Amino acid sequence: MVRELAETYASLEDDDFRVLNAIERGMSQNEWVPREEVPRLARLNEDEASYRIDRLDGELLERRAGRVEGFRLLAVAYDVLAFRALAERGTITALGNKFKVGKESDVYECRGDDRDLVAKVHREGYTSFREVDKQREYTADKDHLSWFYTARKAAEKEHEVLQAVGDTVSVPEPVDQNRHVLVLDRFPGVELDEAEVDDPERMLNAILHQVGLALTAGWVHADLSQYNVMVSDENLCLIDWPQAVTLDHPHADELLVRDVRNIVSYFERTYPSAEYDEVTAYVDRVR
């Protein structure tokens, strides 16, 4: 049985983290970090480094056997390194359980000093990295990528966009970011797909108003759907921005139209008794 991330994190000792950090640094130069390199990188003697490697092997490290034995981080190891850094900075004081699993991210409950937070753990490229590499502009300048790089760049990109639009658009407040983990203020609501909307026309217009505000701020979401709109009794917010593009992107207008069409189509399917305009009319209003 796979342990919860919080349990795995709590089981680790300082020297375990030294070995994980060492292998992470070694992976910047090698796909597999030779075993004999780990003591030097971790600044541990050979016996202690060997003990730590064997302790972590299988759950946090992947081993390559052969003439030159090597190791690399598993996904959970990258997770705990990011959460360790966030804890040391004081951003996160408690880590809870995973409560959402998405196509390209997992979301964990967590706590700061005085508020509830969520930690979005980006997984872009973890299972289908070549496809992500082709589509995402934040990886376009690299010929050879690990999923670690792809996921970290996604977190950095989303953090950048949220900071850029946060004064104008209703989005989660970005609190901190390390590696592939983005810490956000927790919005007290549910995904649009899970909500019962009393006035669908009003809700649709409210969502598209936010799309228009993002456009005014210079951004197109580029992946808008019922799964990344959060709604509550009092408010709504747009989430999941790593694919967002600026207005000078060659496909910005096409992506804007797709965003609007996705949302309008959702309301037409889910609330067919309401009255809706043509998609082009909504697009014109947003613009």
Structural topology:
Layout: H1 5-11, H2 14-26, E1 33-34, H3 38-42, H4 46-56, E2 61-64, E3 70-73, H5 75-88, E4 94-101, E5 105-111, E6 116-122, H6 129-135, H7 147-165, E7 174-178, E8 181-185, E9 190-191, H8 200-216, E10 219-220, E11 229-231, E12 236-238, E13 245-246, H9 252-270, H10 279-286
**Widest beta sheet: strand line-up:** 4-5-6-8-7
Averaged pLDDT, please?
A: 92
Measured on Cα atoms, how large is the radius of gyration? 22 Å
Instruction: Give the beta-strand count.
Output: 13
CATH class of the largest domain: Mainly Alpha
Give the amount of beta strand, in percent: 15-25%
Domain count, please report it: 3
Q: What sequence of helices (H) and strands (E) makes up the elements?
A: HHEHHEEHEEEHHEEEHEEEEHH
SS-derived structural category = alpha+beta
Characterize the largest beta sheet: strand count, sense, and whether it forms a barrel: 5 strands, antiparallel
- The fold-level CATH name of the largest domain is Transferase(Phosphotransferase), domain 1
Output the number of helix runs. 10
Q: CATH-wise, what's the superfamily of the largest domain?
A: Transferase(Phosphotransferase) domain 1
List keywords for this structure.
Phosphorylase Kinase, domain 1; Transferase(Phosphotransferase), domain 1; Arc Repressor Mutant, subunit A; alpha+beta; 13 strands; elongated; 287 residues
